[in-house]
Amino acid sequence: MLANFPKLKAIVAATAAASVLFLPRDGAAQQISAEVLLQDLAQSEVSEAAAIDRELQALWDRSGSPAMDLLLRRGRNAMERGDLQEAAEHLTALTDHAPLFARGWYERARVYFALELYGPSVADLERALALNPQDYNAIYALGALFEQFRRPERAYAAYLRAKAIHPHHEEVSSALKRLRSSIEGREL
């Protein structure tokens, strides 16, 4: 019977492919996966932490839209090339079109920090953390901003929060060590 309709197979195949492409990604499954990975990270040994971190970063980098993932990639590539203005433009387009995608806000905050636009950087980090409160890199970045503002107590608190989530984060550990004596006092 299908032989009488030679284009029917192609139409059915195209319809099936299109329906798969336009189905929304399962945000609940992604959230559960992140929660499991975060639990594993908090309990991990140093040797396991880097692999778990990579998995989390890959998970958090997925917007659910190929177009938004492209904007993220273009923004990061421009930042790596040192073209901070172009990076800001791509990441602004990303945050405009995907305002619930935490990674877009975090990456734009990094660009703003590099441009010494600290107010907008803080605002973007706050937005990123409102969307993903477990993003230890965003918490670390907030701590770095507090250090920039000469608020070591708040920076130290942010670093402690990041360390509670990712106990083996090297930059966080270094920052805590650097600030410890000024926050906790010096031993005699």
What does this structure look like?
The chain has 188 residues and is mainly α. The protein contains 10 helices and no strands. It has helices at 8-21, 27-42, 46-60, 66-81, 84-97, 102-114, 118-131, 136-148, 152-165, 170-184. Helix 8 runs antiparallel to helix 9.
Brief overview:
The protein is mainly α and 188 residues long.
Annotation keywords:
77% helix, 188 residues, disordered N terminus, mainly alpha, 10 helices
What would the average pLDDT be, to the nearest integer? 85
SSE string, helix = H, strand = E?
A: HHHHHHHHHH
Helix content: over 70%
Any low-confidence stretches, pLDDT <50, length ≥5? Answer: 1-26
- Strand coverage percent: under 5%
Q: Tally the helices: what do you get?
A: 10
**In angstroms, what separates the terminal alpha carbons?**
91 Å
Total strand segments: 0
Structural class: mainly alpha
What gross morphology would you assign? Answer: globular
**Estimated radius of gyration:** 21 Å
Largest sheet at a glance? none
SSE layout:
Elements: H1 8-21, H2 27-42, H3 46-60, H4 66-81, H5 84-97, H6 102-114, H7 118-131, H8 136-148, H9 152-165, H10 170-184
Helix pairs in contact: 2-3, 4-5, 4-6, 5-6, 6-7, 7-8, 8-9, 9-10
